[in-house]
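User: Can you help me understand a structure? I only have the sequence.
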Amino acid sequence: MAVSIASAGQTPALELRSEFETEFSGSEWVVFSSGGWSTVEKGKVCFYDESGRLKESVDLRGKEVLTAPLAAERVGVLLYADRQPMTLSVVRFEMYDPNGVRTLAIDNPGFNKAILAPNGAAVCGIVGAEGLEGTVLEFRDENGRVSDTIAVDAFKSGRYSRDGSRFFYQTGDGALNVARGNGQMLYALGITDSWASSVDGQIVAIARQNTIRLFSGGAGVGELAWPAEYGSIRSVALSPDAGFGAAISADRLALFRVEPGELLWEFVNDVPGWNLRSLDISKNADWVAVGADHDPGATSTLRHAQSRCLVFNRHGELIGHRERAPKSWGAQYPMVRFFGDHQTLLFADRDGMSRLRIVPPGATEY
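Assistant: Let's start by predicting it. Here is the structure, written out as tokens:
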């Protein structure tokens, strides 16, 4: 089943409502699963609640860089000696909860960058320059103790599963590798352009050109062909229970069932100048969200002047859409992410965010 902007009628049963909007005060920011957020502002790390009230601010020295995935429960703060953090070792690493309470501090940890598990249960420090030979991944527990290390040639990127029990990393050739959250190496899954996992990291979908391959515990369990006319896959996502998956190209969104690898519906973005950039799926695939960037062309004065979020139900019906007008652009924006009860959606660009809520029409309390 294919739908498009022109043909997708909005279902009258639900609507997409803007619950809260804000512009970030600093260029470094992290949004917590509670709905609050943290930013770096003039030498301080500031913590805000879900209504935008400042709860706490922490004075720091040096160059501060925040590290945490979207909808995290902890944020890591990397302090560097000067303004070139990409080439210098961290002089201090600190971890904070959403209230601004410090839960961990490590002086001179020896790594250059760090990747934080969403729940703060583990930290992976990157020792050495990314993309070059001789990089070492140093795994630490929530108390800062080193649990294991992995030597990597040409480290490219990495992230934890949502529960922190698995760590996924790519090398320079695009190969995806899987380790336990404590750094114990498990298996390799092959070269991929994009990938996603279940909450516990056991189920993994990897996308390569026009094929999506599915794995369970490192063993291949299925394969789904992405039609060539859809264009190359940009991103893939799995629902938290890994029962459903979705993928996007520049102008296509498709939802599929993980077992038996069945394509359920597709959406065609037929409005000129809009490119799909990100996606997420709620639990049970009740909702699918995509983020799109307006890019009419390199010579247009309107390039990247708007971003859009569209939300569909499991049957491919459009629930609603919202737009933002970002002041600056980044290749990974706009971002979309379900959190909390999965009726709430984060829609963020480089400068700010909107918190959206899926509610019955006319609802006054939600």
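Now, to help you interpret it: Residues 104 and 127 are 19 Å apart (CA to CA). The chain has two domains: 1-27+192-366, 32-153. Let me know which part you'd like to focus on.
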